[in-house]
Amino acid sequence: MSNMVQYGMWGNCSNHCDFCLKKDKRELTPEQLIREIAETRKNISIIDWEGKFHDGISLLGGELFHIKDPKVQDAFMELIDDIIEKILKKVPTAVFSCVTNGIYHPAFLYRVMDRFRDTVGMRRVDIAFSYDLQYRFHSVEARNLVVQNILDFMKRYDHTLVVQMILTQHVINLCKAGTWSPNYFETEEIPGTILSFLYPHPIFDGCDKPTKKLPDFQFKRKDLFWFIRWLKDHNERCYYSFLSSTQHSGIYKYTGRFDKDLDGFVEQPKLTDGKEEIAPCGHSKLYRCYSDCDKCLQCDLESLEVLE
Q: How far apart are CA 212 and CA 168, in angstroms?
């Protein structure tokens, strides 16, 4: 298990992806964002980073870097400075981890990353960009902006980027048709990147339960079996990455500031991240993500019959 503490900072996001997984669609005000930042700074000051949580810290959104308000930007930079001074400089094994959608002008992203580069170096940063072939982008301009931001980021920091993509039925269909592949993505579409697939998640549409359905989002079980065998033959690194990330996602993460309703309250990290509802097989119900049956993806990937 990775001994990293994961903070869900806010749901604010610069994009409205068709497959949005936010349960709470409210946008926080600048004042509320500053409060979230202040409470996180309090919390990281009480955690044993040199001992139990020596792997570091993860900040997640929404979207972290599409902040336009100068006061919120300055408050976030104070949090970044705390992370550098209280965690990264004291714990040689610790890293800062985050994911961004990249659909914005990258000035503030660069301000944050420059601070890491100039103090502890980019090897202490684990940042991934999100990408999608069908559901994320609402215009050609938005897609091109993300591609350009990824290429510019790699050049600016001499840093190879992991690009995360949800494995959907649409992706599998393209691979079966021979019109797209992970190898093409890594060498032609966004050259120099490392592609990593994620399993499909429930989609929330402004309510407490997943209700929204997208065509060709969740994959069929038989097609998933075809794909993982095909992927192993065509891009073994990507194959093992998918197995590893799916397995790792099934492990509860330590979450900081879990009870956010207690004003000014700080607490030690708790082992929880939304996967608490367990199916009879022992895995989270989130892994019952096939479109045509109620089987468990985790069980299937653990099966030698599937993997051989």
A: 15
What is the Cα–Cα distance from 137 to 103, expressed in whole angstroms? 9
- How far apart CA 239 and CA 230 sit, in angstroms, is 9
pTM of the model: 0.93
Can you tell me the distance from the alpha carbon of 98 to that of 7, in angstroms, rounded to the nearest whole number?
10
What percent of the chain is modeled with pLDDT above 70? 91
The CB density around residue 52, as the number of other CB atoms within 10 Å, is: 13
Q: Cis (ω within 30 of 0) for the bond into 62?
A: yes
Q: How far is CA 253 from CA 6, 165, 175, 249, 300, in A?
A: 7, 21, 32, 8, 22
60-99 tens-digit pLDDT: 999 999 999 999 999 999 999 999 999 999 999 999 999 9
In the chain, what are the domains? Answer: 4-307 (3.20.20)
Q: Both tokens of residue 135?
A: 């559901």
Helices (H), 13-63: 30-44
CA distance 165 to 175: 14
Among residues 138, 143, 78, 68, which one has the least CA distance to residue 109? Answer: 68
> What are 148's two structure tokens?
């350009």
For residue 70, count CB atoms less than 10 angstroms from its CB and return exposed for 0-12, middle for 13-18, buried for 19 or more: exposed
pLDDT digits (tens, 9 = 90+) for 188-246: 999 999 999 999 988 766 555 555 678 999 999 999 999 999 999 999 999 999 999 99
**What is the C-alpha separation between 258 and 47, in angstroms, rounded?**
14
Helix ranges (DSSP H) in the chain? 30-44, 70-83, 107-119, 140-157, 169-177, 182-184, 221-234, 236-249, 297-302, 304-307
